[in-house]
Amino acid sequence: MDGEELTEQETALYDRQIRVWGADAQRRLSKSHVLVSGMKGTVVEFCKNIVLAGVGSLTLVDDRMVTEEALSANFLIPPNDNAYGGKTIAEVCCDSLKEFNPMVRVSVEKGDLSSFGLEFYDKFDAVVISCCSFTMKKLINEKCRKSSKRVAFYNVDCRGSCGEIFVDLQNHKYSKQKLEDTVECQLEYPSFEEAMSVPWRVLPNKVTKLYFAMRVIERFEDAEGRNAGEISIEDLAGVLNLKKELCEANSLSVSLIPDTLLERLITSTGEFPPVCAIIGGILGQEVIKNISGKGVPLKNFFFFDVMDGKGIVEDISNPNTGS
Amino acid sequence: MFYLQIYLDAQAHYNCFTFFYSVMLHCGMIEKTDKLISLLNIGPNSDYFERIAINDIECLCQLCARGTIILVNHCELEEVFVLVTVHVKGRTECYECQPKPAPKTYPVCTITSTPSKFVHCIVWAKDLLFAKLFGDKNQENDLNVHSRDAASSSEHAADVFERRKDEDFDQYGRRIYDHVFGYNIDVALSNKETWKNRHTPKPIYSKDVLPDKLNQLNGNLDKSGVTDDFSSVSAMVSLGLKNPQDKWSLMESSRIFLEALKLFFLKREKEIGNLSFDKDDQLAVEFVTAAANIRAASFGIPLHSLFEAKGIAGNIVHAVATTNAVVAGLIVIEAIKVLQKDTNNYRMTYCLEHITQKMLLMPVEPYEPNKSCYVCSETPLSLEINTNRSKLRDVVEKVVKAKLGMNFPLIMHGANLLYEVGDDLDEVMVANYAANLEKVLSELPSPITSGTMLTVEDLQQELTCNINIKHREEFDEEKEPDGMVLTGWEQAPPVEEEEKSNGNGETKKDSEFEEISEPSAKKRKLPEVPEGTDLDVPNVANETKKQKEVQKLDDDDDDDFVMFDDHWDSAKNKKKRLQ
To answer: How far apart are CA A226 and CA A218, in angstroms?
Structure first.
């Protein structure tokens, strides 16, 4: 393995997890750089996970000021009014995250995701965004793809009791334990834009209804020019109309996207902490798999719904090319 | 306000708890109060509305009996694989219904004479050699077990571990070294039968491995003498070995062995005689790693690094933050259902490492209560007995203690107390109960006759059950020697009995033996469901039922007890009722 040995301090601190993924993986983790944007419940859970896991550095982007609403699912914001006078959410979270593990460099980057140039994205091994519009997701994903080295892209969204993760690892190589041997494997991922352009009718049977429902809401918000999550029960009629249009255009039966599910998704826009913990945990695991090169990463969507308790993986890619 | 009580295994799941706590906090399910701190370490004998246990097996078993509500996370983190289950009395099977694999044990002779795996060497180094040299001298120890046959050598063995007057530490260490790695192996080799089908061990003497004048080689001891701080005493530091991931050569292990032994006598003499192995005790881990590796070398077993040896010796539970976070989230979701009495939607959830049927999180329905289990089903027990001849003592000894396993029973007939055990009883009561014990059932102050329903409780386990009494005149002396027959009850799986004996038919003395579990034993296969099967939950449940198992937890960790409650006055209610 390239690079220096783990320090004594690192070996002691990460003892239990080194027993899970080995010293090589820990070394790769401690040299990795991660960017996150949109410091809401799920991303905060994710940050905590990878800071505890011992990544090299973590950069936070979120210029919003701390509000009551932000407090509700963000355990990194101390419930103490004096602590964050004039600070942005990213700055407050940064202070708290440093306490979780002093060996990780946590910092804040001010500005808007779309304004950062390619050279900015070059610095990272993984980029995780949340609360972004349809257009923004495509844009950031493209920037990651254009970067001179491979930058993994993750998008995560939670709507009430449901959550979704999208993963683009481009061309990912990993090692897999098969009986006694270690096998080298490779996966081709589509970009977010490519995945979105896969016609619904060519998707395999029984793709989870959450996939379609999330797309309907995403398109609705995009068409209305709203930010992610700016939706309420009053939009139900509009959402149902759009669903009908999309289903017709894709020759998909309208019954595959239950109205009750759409209603549930737009009613509870707030975050539900246990769902954040679960989605943030899965996302943390996926980023660690990617950085360490150990374990089979998921391709390319993950869904969780409290109602049935299932954590489902769907491969949304062009069946002909696989990407 | 909800009343929740949370039990957990302190070290291994501290993280899980903090996440759980923060999630709960944000759900508004609990309020953060200073009380939390003052409520730490309160015993489990209180009466609460809901209880949640995380990974504390002791507590779990008691809670199941109480019929309260429990969520468990079974950790098998070697494969980052976890299971979250719910146990609710009357709705699901109890925690103990699933057979748990007996902890891996090793026959004494494997440990003392014929190790074939590294873990055998670790057990030997930790439980025998380390205990012999630094532990309680009065404790029986099998270290010299094989030299018992050779009567002539028994004296040689008796005092070899005592340091002689004026013997310097290097001499002493080398004498111990030569005895356990050289002489003892030579003695074992003399029994040719043993080695017919086995790899023959090679005796190792210190002079063959190390130069005579060791002191000049490692004169660094003074460096470690700068401080007397317990945790900084390290043979690795004295010898300039840094990386715990490295495998030491036989010579390095031998030097660590002698150095660690010497450091124990020089720096930590006061503790000698009371030491027991602790995975956080650096010097102890170094000593055990070195000794296990020398023994492994002698028996042709592959060597292991300090890091690996520490994991085996300390039964370290693997832990990663991501899995804990997912588990905490799942627990909260189940806890909310429990609090909302949403009994039809309880799920047990497998967190899978590999995607199975498109899923990483696979929920299955909890199993129904087991009808033959008196803990989780509500089937009353029935006791056939001659009420005109049997005494209350017979019922207490033969049924309540021997079969139901209650050590502190309380027996009631309606509202009348017939018998109880406890420290806070006054003399009159004690005399009263003693008199009752000797009375025939039908002549008790509140007579027990056919059709009587007795209520039996165990204060310690908080277990209650009802026994229906049926009078019967005659019993078959051969088939029913107790003179009574209890039905509705099944013998618990005899896990404990297995633990007590070993291949030699000897009785184990050292409880640590049972605690070593072999890592490979943890592997668990995931259910395979035939192709084309829909995601049918009950189907999956059947497939997986057989495979549920739980990993014995690390006993090195102290069990902590934490709860959140505003109304803990109710803790006293039970006591009051009994007085």
So the answer is: 10
Chain A residues within 8 A of B21 when measuring between CB atoms? none
How far off is chain B from A233, nearest CA to CA, in Å? 22
Question: Cβ contact (<8 Å) for A19 and B316?
Answer: yes
DSSP reduced 3-state for B361 = strand
CA atoms of B287 and A20, how far apart (whole Å): 25
| Whether B109 is catalytic | yes
**Chain A residues near residue B26 by CB distance under 8 angstroms:** 41, 72-73, 75, 273
Q: How far is A27 from chain B (nearest CA, A)?
A: 13
Q: What would the pLDDT profile of A44-75 be if each residue is shown by its tens digit?
A: 989 999 998 999 999 999 998 887 777 666 77
Superfamily of domain B381-487: Ubiquitin-like 2 activating enzyme e1b. Chain:  B, domain 3 (3.10.290.20)
* Residue of A100, A158, A179, A278 to mutate for B, most B C-beta atoms under 10 A: A278
Q: Could you tell me which of B142, B206, B124, B198 has the C-alpha nearest to residue B170?
A: B206
- Start-end of CATH 3.40.50 domains in chain B: 4-102+319-371+522-578
| Residue of B326, B336, B347 best to disrupt the A interface, most CBs of A under 10 A | B326
Contact B358 A313 (CB under 8 A): yes
End-to-end CA distance of chain A: give it in Å, rounded.
Answer: 31
Q: In CATH, which of 1.10.10.520, 1.10.510.10, 3.90.226.10, 3.40.50.1220 is domain B116-300?
A: 1.10.10.520
CB contact under 8 A, B307 and A298: no
Closest chain B CA to residue A208? B358
Task: Please tell me which residue of chain A has the smallest CA distance to B342.
Answer: A307
For residue B289, the distance in angstroms to the closest alpha carbon of chain A comes to: 17
Q: Which residue ranges does chain B devote to CATH 1.10.10.520?
A: 116-300
Quote the tokens at residue B100.
């748990």
Q: Where are the domains of chain A?
A: 8-193+271-314, 195-267
Residue with the bigger pLDDT between B388 and B158: it is: B388
- Interface touch B333/A309, C-beta < 8 Å: yes
* Nearest alpha carbon to residue A303 among A213, A242, A174: A213
Chain A hits for B325, CB-CB cut-off 8 Å, are 45, 48-49, 277-278, 280-281, 284
Token pair recorded at residue A276: 């954040």
How many other CB atoms sit within 10 Å of the CB of residue B51?
Answer: 24
Chains A and B form CB pairs within 8 A to the count of: 133
* A132/B126 Cα distance (integer angstroms): 56
What residue in A sits closest to B324 (Cα-Cα)?
A: A281
ipTM (interface pTM): 0.89
**Secondary structure of B497-566 as H, E, C letters:** HHHHECCCCCECCCCHHHHCCCHHHHCCCCCCCCCCCCCCHHHHHHHHHCCCCCCCCCCCCCEEEEEECC
Asked whether the beta carbons of residue B320 and residue A20 sit closer than 8 angstroms, the reply is yes
Q: How far is CA B558 from the centre of its chain?
A: 11
CATH superfamily of this structure's domain A8-193+271-314: NAD(P)-binding Rossmann-like Domain (3.40.50.720)
Question: Is the pLDDT assigned to residue B512 strictly greater than 90?
Answer: no
Give the dihedral of Cα atoms B110, B113, B114, B120; nearest 10 deg: 50
B200-234, pLDDT tens digit by residue? 899 999 988 887 665 444 444 444 444 445 556 88
pLDDT value of position A323: 60
Measured CA to CA, the distance from residue B499 to residue B550 in angstroms comes to 16
Inter-chain CB proximity B361 and A73 less than 8 Å: no
CB contact under 8 A, A274 and B23: yes
Tens-digit pLDDT profile for residues B459-507: 776 677 778 888 888 888 888 888 888 876 654 443 333 333 333 433 3
